[in-house]
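Sequence in, structure out.
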Amino acid sequence: MMRYILLAALAVFALIAPFFVYPILLMTILCFMVFASSFNLLLGYAGLLCFGHAMFFGTGAYIGGWLMKEGGLSIELAFLGAALAMAALGWVVGLISARRGGIQFAMITLAISQFIYFLLLRAPFTHGEDGLQRIPRSDLFGVVDVSSNLSLYYLVLAVSVAAIWFFYRIVHSPFGEVLRAIRDNEGRVESLGFVPERFKILALTLSAGLAGLAGAMKASVLQIATLHDLSFHVSGTIIFMALLGGLGTLAGPIVGAALVVLLTDHLAQFGEWALIIQGSVFLVVILFFRRGLVGELQAFLKRRVARA
């Protein structure tokens, strides 16, 4: 019962939030919530550390922006196109890297992300270091105007809720159970007749698709796609978000993404000190909240219930 009350309260808050908080900030938080959830699927559930996850986010932003600006597609088709394109890229990356694990997998994905970065730097449609600017907010289904921040917010909110629900269904399916087993003991899973590489490839495909969707939404929100979206800095930020909230939980990366975006927004006025403060927060989390904020809260509540 309490869960449904909490969900209802969150729904009401999400619906009225743009009347009290800057909608662009809210939409940025939603985009990174989906992005962090996609990373959580890899590291939190499959045990795969991807150092180049921003390549799916940034490339998805470029593809979604280009489809709206040059292709003239409606916004939902641009989102879908970016998600499918990044799912295809994730499948290719999975074919290359799935047989490796640990630091080898991480370094392979980092190398591929750098290749994609320089490929897009030279690609004519990205406009190099200037980025893809003035991306239009094309009509939803070709008829519904979403050019205003308020109308676009509700579209981004709906897509984000659908994406997080999709993530929830993945991790609570038999496929998600196999991913957890691979994370905990890959050899045992293989002895049961499963092929871990196939599950890793599919996990990377689904994760990349969600990251591409987040990138396309970000491009429509800020109306720009730049090479910064593919940078190692963004890949590191998404790792920070997931660890801050708590890996292997539904709410952890969502909470982590919201906190990091809000922290970055409020600390922007302090210049380089913002990075020092963020680094200090990250250090405190690593030392004292190893499960993340949500993970530690869940562990605390379980202990209380057990004692009762």
